[in-house]
Amino acid sequence: MTSSPPALLYKRVLLKISGEAALGGEAGHGIDIANVDKVAADIAEIVRQGTQVCLVIGGGNIFRGLAGAAQGMERAQADYMGMLATVINALAMQSALERAGVDTRVQSAIPMQTICEPYIRRRAVRHLEKGRVVIFAAGTGSPYFTTDTTAALRAAEMNCEALLKGTSVDGIYTADPKRKPDAERLDRLTYLEYLSKDLRVMDASAIAMMRDSSIPIVVFSIRRPGALMDVMTGQGAHSVITESPAA
Ligand code: UDP
């Protein structure tokens, strides 16, 4: 007797992946096409199962505004460079997804008509309904924000059922597990617990926005092949943030 595959938990998700963890090469810098292809294969798998995927990619593998500001650059100018870095990553991922047989559109919050569409919410919804992955590039288009807040904003705007945050670690820990081996993974926690513990996996403003919209956040490792499908079926290692722990 063959058992049917586990049902997917969400129909439409926003996947936020860190530039360093998903695209970066050695030490998280630059773009390693082999890594991009691995992540694209995982995304392709959930798209083939019928999931509508919105994608937000960070830019930390290329440039972070805060790093530029720390070296004397004007913060807003440095943040614009960070936003442009996310566009480079979006184009790299678009091409990897299309190699994997997935239709995509890139929409940028900073208009750049020659390489991608401008961000138009209704148009993005239409793309999703047609089975295309929509990659939201250039963050919110405003300095002083991050790609985490971008992910929360787009998840709410696009009526996503969950925000999946793919990082280099398989969940939220009591301390940095790379430095403290006795750190424990918190499998379920509430938005309030996350905020009161001052955890640093995701910006507090992004968490607050997801709380307002009642959208669960799932933190998992994008580095482990197959982890994304596990999250979609409620399996494997990950942490879930919701309003009540039992939800
Ligand atoms: N950024 C911005 N406004 C936004 C989104 C991003 O100014 O709405 C800039 C900011 O400088 C940030 C950089 O883009 O440092 C790259 O994004 P992020 O650091 O969130 O990338 P990640 O750490 O997820 O790879």
Explain what this protein looks like in three dimensions.
- Helix content is 38%, strand content 19%.
- It is of the alpha/beta class.
- The protein has one domain: Carbamate kinase (3-Layer(aba) Sandwich), CATH 3.40.1160.
- The strands form 2 sheets. A 9-stranded mixed sheet has the order 4-3-5-2-1-6-10-11-9, with helices on both faces.
- α2 crosses α4 and α6 runs parallel beside α8.
- The longest helix is centred in the middle third of the chain and has 25 residues.
- The mean pLDDT is 96.
- The site of uridine-5'-diphosphate has 23 residues, from α1, α3, α4 and α6.
What tags apply to this protein structure?
single chain; 247 residues; alpha/beta; Carbamate kinase; nine-stranded mixed sheet; two-stranded antiparallel ribbon; 9 helices; binds uridine-5'-diphosphate
With helices defined by DSSP (H or I, 4 residues minimum), what is the helix count? 9
* N-to-C SSE string, H for helix and E for strand: EHHEHHEEHEHEEEEHHEHE
- Under the CATH scheme, the architecture is 3-Layer(aba) Sandwich
> Strand sequence of the main sheet, in spatial order?
4-3-5-2-1-6-10-11-9
Topology overview:
Layout: E1 12-17, H1 19-22, H2 33-48, E2 52-57, H3 65-70, H4 75-99, E3 104-108, E4 117-118, H5 121-129, E5 133-137, H6 147-157, E6 162-167, E7 172-173, E8 185-186, E9 188-190, H7 191-196, H8 204-213, E10 217-221, H9 227-232, E11 239-242
Parallel strand pairs: 1-2, 1-6, 2-5, 3-4, 3-5, 6-10, 9-11
Antiparallel strand pairs: 7-8, 10-11
Helix pairs in contact: 2-4, 6-8
This protein binds uridine-5'-diphosphate (UDP).
Uridine-5'-diphosphate (UDP) binds next to helix 1, helix 3, helix 4 and helix 6.
